[in-house]
Write a structure and sequence with these properties.
Shape: globular
CATH topology: Rossmann fold
CATH architecture: 3-Layer(aba) Sandwich
CATH superfamily: HAD superfamily/HAD-like
CATH class: Alpha Beta
Keywords: Cytoplasm, Hydrolase, Magnesium, Metal-binding, Nucleotide metabolism, Nucleotide-binding
Structural class: alpha/beta
Number of domains: 1
Family: Belongs to the pyrimidine 5'-nucleotidase family.
Subcellular location: Cytoplasm
GO molecular function: 5'-nucleotidase activity; magnesium ion binding; nucleotide binding
Bound molecules: 7N-methyl-8-hydroguanosine-5'-diphosphate, magnesium ion
Helix content: 25-40%
Strand order of the largest sheet: 1-9-8-7-2-3-4
EC number: 3.1.3.5
Length: about 325
């Protein structure tokens, strides 16, 4: 998008980055539909520097692993909440009924999205209604999430440390349960001031649960259009170099709503039904990583951006506006 073709001599100039010189992008399990386009965008990112970057990431099975070393399955953010022991007896039963009714609709390959949206709104609304009228102590959620703080992709800490050092805002977008997401990220020490979680958070009224806070984030509005006009959008919308990371096809659209002149690099983690899904993932994402349980690719991209930045600002001043402290508290 917008990137002009460079001729061979321009590519030979000092500092131009070539895909063949980035080892993680040359691994067998790293696939690209259009490696020239990826190369162009990476060079835009490196030239633009950290002050033009933002990261938008899904949470479940993108920040957490799709497959753990010990084979223990990592529950989703809703799954973590649903397994809390103090929830009323009928809660789990009713929430499972909803899952069995609506999940087949969510993954139905024949129903058009326009038709699915209403069902998904119904599902999230009814889940919220079930989570109403009883006490729930959030420390129970912390106890549950602490069991899974080691289930983040390898290199997640290093990635988040680099993003903080470079003052790059990170938006974690989840149509799951925000309280589980934040709790797990806090337990794993990656809930830093440059990180904002946009998701569904439990609401309390008179000490009892009262469903989810507005706005509802479901799988079909999980993109930057729900942020438009809000404080967070104002803080990041000038950052037009965007890395998007996700494990579901729909995650590829999370940056929808940013200005069309933006350069967006989409990284997709593919694990289930690799052969059947490959074509769709290759069309939706710029880089498809097959059964990769690490953050090596985004780390390598940041290292390139960082290296050029250090050359330009050897004394540590990065010229970045100090917006990070406001990010977490920014309203939508
Ligand atoms: C309302 N609701 C939605 N989901 C699932 O939560 C997922 C959240 O969507 P997502 O944020 O794209 O998460 P992902 O990273 O796991 O893909 C959806 O794909 C739904 O299948 C839900 N899952 C459970 N267990 N319980 C629920 O009430 C519920
Ligand atoms: Mg996911």
């Amino acid at each position: 998008m917008g990137a002009t073709e460079l001729n061979a001599s321009q590519k030979d100039r000092v500092g131009y980055v070539r895909i063949q010189d980035i080892p993680v992008l040359n691994q067998d399990h790293c696939r690209m539909r259009d490696s020239q386009r990826v190369e162009r965008i990476i060079n835009e990112f490196v030239c633009g520097g950290p002050e033009r970057m933002q990261v938008v990431s899904d949470f479940d099975y993108t920040i957490t692993k799709q497959r753990t070393d010990d084979g223990v399955a990592v529950p989703s953010s809703f799954g973590i909440f649903n397994s809390c022991k103090s929830l009323p007896d009928n809660f789990k039963e009713e929430i499972d009924k909803l899952f069995h009714k609506y999940h087949p609709i969510e993954i139905d390959p024949h129903m058009p999205i326009s038709e699915k949206v209403q069902y998904m709104i119904e599902w999230w609304t009814q889940s919220g209604k079930l989570a109403t009228g009883f006490a729930f102590d959030l420390t129970e959620l912390d106890q549950m999430t602490s069991q899974f703080k080691h289930a983040l992709r390898d290199g997640t800490h290093e990635l988040f440390d680099a993003l903080l050092r470079l003052q790059i805002p990170v938006l974690v977008f989840s149509a799951g349960l925000g309280n589980s997401v934040v709790s797990l990220m806090e337990q794993a020490n990656i809930m830093q001031p440059n990180v904002k979680v946009v998701s569904n958070f439990l609401r309390y009224r008179d000490g009892l649960l009262d469903g989810f806070q507005e706005p509802m984030i479901h799988i079909f509005n999980k993109n930057e259009t729900v942020l438009e006009g809000g404080e967070y959008y104002e803080l990041v919308h000038t950052r037009d170099h965007i890395i998007v990371m996700g494990d579901s096809l729909g995650d590829a659209d999370m940056a929808a709503g940013v200005p069309s002149s933006s350069h967006i690099l989409k990284i997709g983690f593919l694990f289930h039904h690799v052969e059947a899904n490959m074509e769709k993932y290759m069309n939706a994402f710029d880089i498809v990583l097959v059964d990769d349980q690490t953050m090596s690719v985004p780390q390598a991209l940041l290292a390139l951006i960082d290296k050029r930045h250090q050359l330009r600002h050897p004394h540590g001043s990065n010229g970045t506006a100090p917006v990070q402290a406001q990010l977490q508290s920014a309203s939508l």
